[in-house]
Amino acid sequence: MYEQLYNRLLSEYAESQDALGVQGERLAKRLSKIAEIGLTADGGSDRIGFSEGEKRAKELVISWMEHAGMSVRSDEAGNVIARLEGSDPSLPPVISGSHVDSVPNGGHFDGPLGVLSSLEVVEAWATEGYTPKRAYEVVIFTDEEGSRFNSGLTGSRAMTGAVDLDQQRALRDASGDSFEEVLAAIQLNAQTFTKAKREFQLGSDYIELHIEQGKVLEERNLPVGVVSGIAGPRYWKMTFTGVAGHAGNTAMNQRQDALVAASQLVHSVASLPIRHSETAVATVGKLTVEPNGANVIPGKVTLVVDVRDITAPTRDVLFEEIKEVANTIAQEWNVSLECEETINVAPVPVSQETKDRLHSVIEAEGFTSIEIPSGAGHDAMLMGTQMSMAMIFVRSAKGISHHPDEWTTLADCVTGVKVLKRYVEQLQ
């Protein structure tokens, strides 16, 4: 796999695209080395959080960090923090990073590209003989994907003090192993896990590079884009309850069909977000029908509505409107409705000043700069609660992600590193 990925990356790349000390071949080699860890039969990545695979990938990157002259430590949550000292120790650091864990049978760019791009900035500075004024840190966050316990962003939540230890200790993975047992297997301790919380120096900045995992950049034929904000999800768990009955003997005008009501809501949800915001989205992705018989009128349907936007006011108005629509539908079809909010995570917008700085950097590279909202969560979401946050998206072929076919050309990867490097230098 190493040779296959390495050769494919370089086959589409011209060495003349190297610039500002950034070396495409080094980036390709490192992406390919990480891809060897947890390689699946389908050619994908399987390095779930708190696994030996994630640990080995961290250890590999640590060796490169140390070779680049960075001091490296790991915290109680397993997050790796590498630091390059600046010329003025009094200044707050600039922090960049991502993750190296994956979903089962995922791709090779989601996470590792952000980590390696952050490290490539240090390598480029060494080539140029450049020393930043502000310290520069590269972070590998633990368990971003959350595949182990169906609960992600674990490392960044620990670092920012957003972990409830009692909730974490109650978790069990698919094998039945507890959170404590899983941590112990990789030499971490659940008792001290929350000690990873860090007090950040006032004025610190965070920047994360990540593949887009969508098609906007590809459709616009652009290599990189500016993330306008990270959408915060709110979930409704809705239960429509009618009356189950015989599909043959119950007249149509006598039915209290819970699925008909739920289906009308699903259809309505698709048209509601655009009324409130161009960046709002709403999805019904999970639906349970009871008793779920082919010849039985559905008596009970439970569904989850996932509502997201990058600004809280527009998201929250949409969230409440969906409940109002659901109540109207329930009355129309003579069924009852119960609503329970199960998730509420605050959106994290990117400041206009930060977006303007990123736009200028991308335009300096000779590209049109556009803004894209991130519907997916990232470690930047948590870091953005503590300091100024920015994100760069890099083009994803066909928008494919969390799949072995996930792909970003080396030319686009290198463009992303150049933009990241210029941005960090502007913060000095």
From TrEMBL:
<comment type="similarity">
    <text>Belongs to the peptidase M20 family.</text>
</comment>
<dbReference type="Pfam" id="PF07687">
    <property type="entry name" value="M20_dimer"/>
</dbReference>
<comment type="subunit">
    <text>Homodimer.</text>
</comment>
<dbReference type="GO" id="GO:0047652">
    <property type="term" value="F:allantoate deiminase activity"/>
</dbReference>
<dbReference type="InterPro" id="IPR002933">
    <property type="entry name" value="Peptidase_M20"/>
</dbReference>
<protein>
    <submittedName>
        <fullName>Allantoate deiminase</fullName>
        <ecNumber>3.5.3.9</ecNumber>
    </submittedName>
</protein>
<dbReference type="InterPro" id="IPR036264">
    <property type="entry name" value="Bact_exopeptidase_dim_dom"/>
</dbReference>
<keyword id="KW-0479">Metal-binding</keyword>
<dbReference type="InterPro" id="IPR011650">
    <property type="entry name" value="Peptidase_M20_dimer"/>
</dbReference>
<dbReference type="InterPro" id="IPR010158">
    <property type="entry name" value="Amidase_Cbmase"/>
</dbReference>
<feature type="domain" description="Peptidase M20 dimerisation">
    <location>
        <begin position="235"/>
        <end position="333"/>
    </location>
</feature>
<keyword id="KW-0464">Manganese</keyword>
<keyword id="KW-0378">Hydrolase</keyword>
<dbReference type="Pfam" id="PF01546">
    <property type="entry name" value="Peptidase_M20"/>
</dbReference>
